[in-house]
Amino acid sequence: MIWQCKIRHYSSAFGLSEHDSILTSAHLAGEKLKYGCAAGHCGLCKLRLCSGQVDMRHSGGISRADITAGYILACCSRPLTDIEIELDE
């Protein structure tokens, strides 16, 4: 693991691999993030990136407005730094 992911409003953090998506790293660490297709189409894994940087390569499952507002898709985003995320409940 090279980076860390902190989940805002929870006392939870997990390691991130530069080679895996945030979703994959979360599940490997036992964190249960919601998702549907895991391919960037459905948008169910959308969450807000509070700090840090990611490389997101999606397949249309997120709008430009959401991206501008700071949202990412966990299934198709790989970390470039330590990050903090906020989950939609």
What does this structure look like?
With 89 residues, this protein is α+β, with helices and mostly antiparallel strands. It has one domain (3-86): Ubiquitin-like (UB roll) (Roll), CATH 3.10.20. It is built from two helices and seven strands. A five-stranded mixed β-sheet has the order 2-1-7-3-5. Strand 1 and strand 2 (12-16) form a beta hairpin. The longest helix is centred in the N-terminal third of the chain and has 7 residues, at 22-28. The protein is globular, with a radius of gyration of 11 Å.
The number of domains: 1
Strand order of the largest sheet: 2-1-7-3-5
Report the total helices: 2
What is the level-2 CATH architecture name? Roll
- CATH level 1 class label: Alpha Beta
- Structural class estimated from helices and strands: alpha+beta
Q: Radius of gyration, Cα only, in angstroms?
A: 11 Å
Shape: globular
Helix-residue proportion: 10-25%
